[in-house]
Amino acid sequence: HLTQEELAERLDISRASVYRYEMGEIDFKVSILDKYSAEFGVSADFLLSGHNLDDRKQVLDLLDNLSKTAC
């Protein structure tokens, strides 16, 4: 499992920013989206579209699950 703090360090952002992205409080900036994409090995399009998932909550849940499975 990857903690928010560990992910923040890998992405060079604050832990609070990771939390706010995961909670949908703020939208992804392009630079952060690129970092998330690289970290989890998925395209920015996949993260934005949810790979045909219907709503933003599902995309955020996907990001949360990805961060938990990354080592």
Number of strands: 0
**Termini distance?**
6 Å
Radius of gyration: 11 Å
How many DSSP helices?
A: 5
Overall morphology: globular
Order of helices and strands: HHHHH
Residues in helix, %: 55-70%
Q: Which stretches are poorly predicted, pLDDT < 50 over at least 5 residues? A: none
- How does the helix and strand content classify structurally? mainly alpha
Main beta sheet, described? none
> Whole-number average pLDDT?
80
**Proportion of β residues?**
under 5%
Summarize the helices and strands and which ones pair or pack.
Elements: H1 4-11, H2 15-23, H3 30-40, H4 44-49, H5 56-69
Helix pairs in contact: 1-2
Give me a quick take on this structure.
The chain is mainly alpha-helical and 71 residues long. It has five helices and no strands.
Keywords:
globular; mainly alpha; single chain
Provide structural commentary:
68% of the residues lie in helices and 0% in strands. The chain is mainly α and 71 residues long. The mean pLDDT is 80. It has five helices and no strands.
